[in-house]
């Protein structure tokens, strides 16, 4: 019986592993097919001032439609990274977001900054700078209306190279923000060394605000530290009124979250802009 049990649990684990490998292959196929039929979409989530809820920017977020719904980026982005497909996908997101932003500016809306996520592989590409320059030239978007979001993992153990890449990006006039700040395994010394405009406080710290414990101390500490280094502070994943109030009280500059709006397809986002223009 013992032997049988052993066998079963072995089969159980291989089964799980097999499922994972199969799902990964399936996702890779889906990504390829979606690229083929030009089915990927970009949604936009507003970034607003915490003081007045004014839209000051938006984050471009990649969407993979499938079977009437969407496959989560949390699931497909890692596969896109492992397969290298993220390089062409990421270039496409960058171009799409810049083009869309320019279009809204030409339509007469107050200019906004669009932020685009760069995966570690993209960030470490040799021709990154050239690609960005070409995209800005092609879409005719002024560099100051573009921001790149990078996670700490992208430059772990690469201080010298990263400092150079950041300086290159900054020399074009593009903003840089650190995404999911506080969750990466990295030293804080880079905050002084690298030219960073903005820290995006990870949702996990925002989630702790307003709970019974005094665990909002991390969010508070990040705000204080970022401010003292003259960075812009953005809180991600703000859902509750009490979180917003805490962030207002501690002078977090901007928020992004469902409390204001979910990520929206371009037409829906434009409706928000219209409302804002009308009621401004
Ligand atoms: P991220 O860059 O940290 O993006 C923020 C995520 O939080 C988005 O998830 C957004 O929809 C979600 N979010 C915003 N506000 C709230 C809120 O109030 N509550 C909750 N529960 N969630 C909120 P999404 O769109 O699923 O993207 C997940 C991650 O996938 C992103 O995290 C980013 O790391 C990655 N990703 C998305 N698009 C791209 C892309 O074009 N390129 C790359 N490299 N990564 C991307
Ligand atoms: Mg982001
Ligand atoms: Mg984030
Ligand atoms: Mg993230």
Automatic annotation (TrEMBL):
Domain EAL: 24-277
Domain of life: Bacteria
GO biological processes: signal transduction
Keyword field: Membrane, Transmembrane, Transmembrane helix
GO cellular component: membrane
Keyword rRNA processing annotated: no
Name of the featured protein: Diguanylate cyclase/phosphodiesterase (GGDEF & EAL domains) with PAS/PAC sensor(S)
Organism: Sporomusa ovata
Part of the intact protein present: 281 to 560 of 560
């Amino acid at each position: 019986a013992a032997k049988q049990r052993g066998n079963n649990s072995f089969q159980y684990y291989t089964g799980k592993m097999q499922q994972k490998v199969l799902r990964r292959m399936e996702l890779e196929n889906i990504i390829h097919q979606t690229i083929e039929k030009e089915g990927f979409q970009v949604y936009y989530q507003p970034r607003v001032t915490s003081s007045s809820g004014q839209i000051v920017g938006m984050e471009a977020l990649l969407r993979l439609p499938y079977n009437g719904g969407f496959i989560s980026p949390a699931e497909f982005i890692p596969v896109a990274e492992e397969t290298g497909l993220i390089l062409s996908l990421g270039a496409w997101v960058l171009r799409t977001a810049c083009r869309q932003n320019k279009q809204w500016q030409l339509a007469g809306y107050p200019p906004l900054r669009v932020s685009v996520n760069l995966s570690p592989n993209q960030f470490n590409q040799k021709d990154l700078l050239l690609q960005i320059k070409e995209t800005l030239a092609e879409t005719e978007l002024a560099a100051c209306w573009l921001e790149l979001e990078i996670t700490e993992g992208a430059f772990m153990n690469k201080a010298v190279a990263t400092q150079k890449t950041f300086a290159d990006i900054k020399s074009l006039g593009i903003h840089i923000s650190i995404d999911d700040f506080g969750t990466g395994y990295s030293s804080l010394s880079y905050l002084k060394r690298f030219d960073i405009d903005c820290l995006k406080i990870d949702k996990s710290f925002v989630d702790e605000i307003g709970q019974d414990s005094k665990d909002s101390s991390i969010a508070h500490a990040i705000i204080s530290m970022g401010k003292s280094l003259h960075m812009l502070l953005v809180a991600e994943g703000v859902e509750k009124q009490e979180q917003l109030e805490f962030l207002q009280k501690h002078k977090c500059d901007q928020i992004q979250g469902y409390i204001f709006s979910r990520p929206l397809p371009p037409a829906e986002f434009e409706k928000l802009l219209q409302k804002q223009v009308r009621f401004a």
